[in-house]
Amino acid sequence: DVANKYPENAAGKFYVDEQCIDCDLCRETAPANFKRNDDGGHSYVYKQPESPEEEALCKEAMEGCPVEAIGNDGA
Hints:
The chain is of the alpha+beta class.
């Protein structure tokens, strides 16, 4: 939910919200775009995709997220 996204997400369409359970799937799927907040124990988007390949990996991470914590607001 875009209203509950973490503030450290990079500006842009992909984001991680407060439902994240820190499972590591997005960081393994798209390591160029997702990082871990070690203090908060969750992932966030630290870089929006800059190529079609990164875009595809971010979409794959979003679709694979077990708690639907990754969103795409289309911005």
